[in-house]
Amino acid sequence: MNRHSLILSFALVASWAVVPTSWADNPLAASVEMDYSGKADSLTTAFVGQFLNTSRGTFWAVPYDRPNRDDVTTDIYWQQAHAMDVLIYSYERIKDTDAATASRYERYMKLWYACHANNWYRDDSDMTGFLNEFTDDMCWICLTLLHMSEALDRPTYANTARIVFDNYIMPRGWRDEQGFWGLPWKSNFMERNACTNAPGSLVASKLFLRYGDEKYKQAAIEMCTYLMNEMKTKLNNDGRVEEPPLTYTQGTFSEACRQLYHITGDASYLTTAQRVMNYMLNSPRCTHNGLLRDEGDSMDQSIFKAVAMPYAVNMVLDESVSMAYRRTFLRYLQNNAKALWNNLDLSTYPAMYCNFYWGSPVDPTRTPSMGAMASGASLMESVARMASELTKGEHSGIRPINQEADARMGTGSVVTLDGRLLSRHAASVPLPSGTVYIVGRKKVMGK
């Protein structure tokens, strides 16, 4: 059996089981329905296999075997950031357990960087290769460069993001008559929007956290303040970041506010982050039948959800966020992951594709979309990270609550790997041989 078959077999059979070793460590652990890592392996492997140009580290808009793949990929730049982010999250998840695949993914990241993420824009003054006339495109690319730098511990990528931000992004900002400073959507274009200033604020926060320069903190606050004023004066402050509300702007602005809360301690940022994320996951404007809606089938629209999914998980993992919100977001993300998986045609693996809407299967008569595939893979990688962090109880934003859990479950409780509580006292039940149980907080083989 080859590795792809093994991955799919694991995803189909084993990954639905919960290993609730951390019920004693985290109040959300018991709500995690399964280990999603097998499903994440399957989707990311299919995504890379069908859409990645392995000689360049960049992604085609359509599967590799389509005759028009190069023609329709020419202008895809900002989408490369979010496609590569899926691969980076997968790398972080498997690097300690699958060295060969992790090494290959690292090579793709280096190629992506060397090919300037498929940037179609050229300027002789550009010292990085990432300059683009669209300001938001550069912001998205900078976020991925910073993520890549963190994952690989390579300062070069972060330094490049800093150069791009300092030389090509920040100088475009302008202050309006009301005193609000923000970034324009495009060079020589005065219009400002959320899809530029939300990622712009997040880039600035990440640069501040890395380099400690106050100018980045101030820029992050200015862009966030501009958007918060837009929400208040134009959108009734109901949780919409922009009209129409789209997952990528909702998710990114929520994350930008979350970061600023931790940087400044100002609770208004956290309040905004929660409200914005809650709108994305619960408003009928953003959802359909309890799942995130189909936002469109263009390359831009189809990849929106790929941007938002990691940030939704960050809200679940952040202990500063209201527990009611964290539980709601966790449940919603798991429902979306289950719907996505149930609507995949597993018989076509590895040519297995995600639909624009996760509540229905793909139309086999239509050309599969890289954006839709990236969004589905991003969801599964994100919930795999969420489940892993919650069941480990080791996420930096989560406090152990051993005493509370022990009081609830009992230090000698016996739990099956699928999450069923058999007894609160190990001595009261027989443990058949050949089966693994969780007794207290340890795995025990029945004898």
Measure the end-to-end span.
32 Å
Category by helix and strand content: alpha+beta
Q: What gross morphology would you assign? A: globular
Strand content: 5-15%
* Helix residue percentage: 40-55%
How is the secondary structure organized here?
Elements: H1 3-13, H2 37-51, E1 52-53, E2 58-59, H3 78-94, H4 99-114, H5 135-152, H6 155-169, E3 174-175, E4 181-182, E5 184-186, E6 189-192, H7 194-211, H8 214-234, H9 247-264, H10 267-282, E7 287-288, E8 291-292, H11 299-302, H12 304-317, H13 323-342, H14 370-392, H15 402-409, E9 414-416, E10 421-423, E11 436-439, E12 442-445
Antiparallel strand pairs: 1-2, 3-4, 5-6, 7-8, 9-10, 9-11, 11-12
Q: Can you describe what's shown?
A:
With 447 residues, the chain is of the alpha+beta class. The chain has helices spanning 3-13, 37-51, 78-94, 99-114, 135-152, 155-169, 194-211, 214-234, 247-264, 267-282, 299-302, 304-317, 323-342, 370-392, 402-409, and strands spanning 52-53, 58-59, 174-175, 181-182, 184-186, 189-192, 287-288, 291-292, 414-416, 421-423, 436-439, 442-445. The strands form 5 sheets. A 4-stranded antiparallel beta sheet has the order 10-9-11-12, with no helix packed on it. The chain has a two-stranded antiparallel sheet with strand order 1-2. The protein is globular and about 70 Å long. The relative contact order is 0.13. The model is unreliable at 1-7, 9-24, 393-411 and 417-421 (pLDDT under 50).
